[in-house]
Design goal:
Rossmann fold; 627 residues; 28 helices; 41% helix; 3 domains; alpha+beta; 6-stranded antiparallel beta sheet; Glutamine Phosphoribosylpyrophosphate, subunit 1, domain 1
């Protein structure tokens, strides 16, 4: 796990080593264990290392092939690198290190970049330079676990694990991407490859970008496919899933440093800890909870420490807890926004705190992200659309649900009356399906499959980005066993009836009743049915019967209570850094609606606070660690 940065000058001008070093060291938090540099004519590579596998100096990067034709810098972990290594040895490669990095460079030489990318089971973003052909390959893993950003100018193409590396280049200027800003304040996410920084985009997941004298060529080598479910009995499905879960967890424990795990009160993290603790005695586990003395309503159940403590007791882990209180957002928000850069999803500062805690004890931490998106963990979402009449009806229904922050009319007020973007935002939403021609929209099961595809491509992608940025901010590697190749392949083939235990009942419910939000959310919550059955004899009954709950802070209560003055100070002042982009009257209304209790705007307020802090950091140049 590391940070990578570099660029290729299109005009063949020599790369300036000082600029490469500045870009590289802007990512020092991602790799506190070492730094490397390689310059070859117009090409500059910089690498910061977090040592996880083969801790010796011989495994440092950039790494070269024996003939020095090929040079690689790599961020991530390849969980099946030992199997790939054995294949490559049979084909004649003689290894000098025990690292997964050398497996990548050997695989590229012997198999080619595309074949290697398809063989990888793991998380990876890497840059490969062919010095003989003057050709650069940029590659991202199939699920997009590890980020890779691109910044193009007529003179060069630059790449990096984080956008702040570009800010260290003397030619880079921070400008707001207005289209991305509207997209963010619609979905609280970005569905396209662009970012809030004008001119900066992400290389999409499962993509190989090749740059040489002939220009650029982009290839997608994998995508989610939920369109071909296979007939399978319940007993066989449960047994297969249990076997695959065990294999996935064991595979992702490979490391030459201690591995711990996040432990909430839920089934996903509990499953990982239960299985991992069979291989790691006295495993270290970490939970973030909340000080709840002034929290009311549904948020009163957000603290998961009691259930986490039960599982820690069951599996004999060495357990640590972080208690977050209302005042912690003031200290953490500048740090969180600085490291996120690319704003995504809801309240994420608890993720920063728990990663900060875990990093004091381990270098690697297992996370349960992916279980919900692959195995149907959000049934209240699917039941909004599974009765849709056809594709157009489905898209209209689901688009309405995913406008998490503002409607088209509200965006006219937020961005100005001329900002009529309804057609644009709907096209953005619909474009997620553009590369999934195999999806059908004829049956309720088809609509559920389409929903799973959408959420893996968008919501899970956002979760992974937040996980990477806020863990690496603390020099910690997060791993996601649910994103194991074989496990994902099985999840995609598994019929919807094995994921949603109440699907058969739901099919008999009157269509008008389906549209009643409370019925859909409270009466039909049987998600991840197959996973629950597979883990029945592994997890305590109290956890198996626990209602699903996301990892979220009680912000609705805190914004009205202890943090009310902080919200007003940040959003109602006369010198807002975001005032050039957002309407002050709209912000004032949103704040007062929430503080008065007339409306729950907690997600919108978080995004307004985050963008205000983003402008302070990246437009005004405020230092995130000034206090």
């Amino acid at each position: 796990m590391c940070g990578i940065a570099g660029f290729l000058n299109r005009n063949d001008a020599p790369a300036d080593p000082a600029i490469v070093v500045a870009m590289r060291d802007a990512l020092a938090h991602r790799g506190p264990d070492g730094a490397g540099l390689h310059v070859d004519g117009p090409l500059g590579f910089g690498h910061r290392r977090l040592s996880i596998i083969d801790l010796r100096a011989i495994a440092n990067q950039p790494m070269h092939s024996p003939d020095r034709r090929w040079t690689i810098i790599f961020n991530g972990e390849i969980y099946n690198f030992r199997e790939l290594r054995a294949e490559l040895e049979r084909e004649g490669w003689s290894f000098r290190t025990l690292s997964d990095t050398e497996v990548l460079i050997a695989g590229c030489v012997i198999w080619g970049v595309r074949k290697l990318a398809r063989k990888i089971d793991g998380m990876a973003a890497f840059a490969l330079w062919d010095a003989r052909e003057k050709r650069l390959h940029l590659v991202r893993d199939r699920f997009g676990v590890k980020p890779l950003y691109l910044w193009r100018t007529p003179e060069r193409i630059a790449f990096a694990s984080e956008i702040k590396a570009f800010m260290a280049h003397p030619d880079f200027r921070v400008r707001v991407n207005d289209s991305a800003l509207r997209e963010y304040f619609t979905f609280q996410n970005l569905f396209r490859a662009h970012t809030l920084f004008q001119g900066v985009e992400q290389l999409p997941a499962a993509t190989i970008l090749t740059i040489d004298r002939d220009g650029e060529r982009r290839e997608t080598y994998w995508d989610y496919d939920f369109s071909h479910s296979e007939p399978i009995g319940t007993e066989e499905a449960v047994e297969t899933l249990e076997t695959l879960m065990k294999q996935a967890v064991e595979r992702q424990l490979v490391a030459d440093v201690p591995v711990g795990a996040y432990l909430s009160g839920g089934m996903d993290s509990g499953t990982l800890v239960a299985l991992a603790s069979q291989h790691v005695p006295r495993m270290q586990t970490f939970t973030a909870g909340f000080e709840m003395s002034r929290v009311q309503g549904t948020e009163a159940g957000f603290d998961e420490r009691r259930d986490a403590e039960l599982m820690a007791y069951c599996y004999k882990t060495e357990h640590y807890e972080q208690v977050i209180n209302a005042g912690d957002i003031r200290w953490s928000l500048p740090r969180v926004v600085w490291h996120l850069e690319d704003l995504r999803l809801g309240m994420s500062y608890p993720n920063y705190y728990i990663a900060r805690l875990a990093s004091k004890f381990v270098k690697v931490c297992l996370s349960g992200a992916g279980g919900d998106e692959l195995f149907g963990g959000y049934p209240w979402r699917y039941y909004r659309v599974f009765r849709s009449l056809d594709q157009d009806d489905y898209l209209s229904n689901y688009y309405g649900f995913w406008q998490r922050l503002t409607t088209a009319e509200e965006r006219k007020r937020l961005f100005g009356a001329s900002a009529d973007d309804e057609a644009e935002m709907f096209d953005v939403f619909r474009s997620v399906y553009a590369d999934a021609p195999r999806l059908s929209f004829e049956t309720p099961e088809d609509h559920i499959s389409a929903s799973l595809y959408f959420e893996c491509r968008t919501f899970l992608s956002g979760l992974l980005l937040v996980g990477d940025k806020l863990s690496m901010a603390n020099g910690l590697e997060e791993r996601f066993p649910f994103l194991d190749n074989a496990l994902v392949d099985f999840a995609m083939r598994l019929p919807a009836r094995h994921k949603l235990s109440d699907l058969e009942h739901m099919l008999t419910v009157d269509e008008d009743a389906v549209r009643k939000k409370l019925l859909a959310e409270d009466s039909f919550a049987g998600g991840k049915s197959c996973l629950r059955q597979a883990m029945t004899h592994v997890l305590p009954p109290e956890i198996m019967e626990r209602r699903k709950q996301g990892f979220s802070s009680p912000e609705a209560s805190w914004y009205r209570g202890d943090n009310a003055d902080y919200v007003r100070d940040m959003l109602l002042g006369t010198d807002l850094a975001s005032s050039a982009y957002l309407d002050a009257d709209f912000i004032h209304t949103a704040v007062e609606e929430h503080l008065s209790g007339r409306k729950n705007n907690r997600l919108l307020l978080w995004s307004l606070l985050s963008f205000e802090q983003w402008c302070r950091c990246f437009i005004n140049g405020e230092k995130p660690y000034a206090s």
